[in-house]
What we know:
The radius of gyration is 12 Å and the shape is globular. By secondary structure, the protein is α/β, with parallel strands linked by helices. The protein has helices at residues 14-23, 37-42, 44-50, 69-76, 91-95, and strands at residues 3-8, 27-33, 56-61, 84-89. The mean pLDDT is 82. The protein has a single domain (3-95), classed as Rossmann fold (3-Layer(aba) Sandwich), CATH 3.40.50. The protein starts with a strand and ends with a helix.
Amino acid sequence: xxxxxxxxxxxxxxxVAIKLLEHAGLDVGRVYGRSGKVHLLKSSVSYxxxxxxxxxxxxxxxxxDARCPSQAVSVWMPNLPEECVFGLLCARLKRGF
Length: 97
């Protein structure tokens, strides 16, 4: 089974990401981040480079950063490799976990 590394904004996002990956039948690799959105976005270039070599799942809140998810992703993670799935968590989903 494929192992996928996880990058999350905060500790509360980690169980959501793990549950989504397990539901998809994927093994969870290492979990990174948990230090807030500012830190995650400052480190995004490094994580983007890492995603060229192994699969990653990134989960971060959209908040009011952009009008739509694709706009935020193109700013936050330019040249995103296909091995990286970038998830934007909406408030409704987050409350459900």
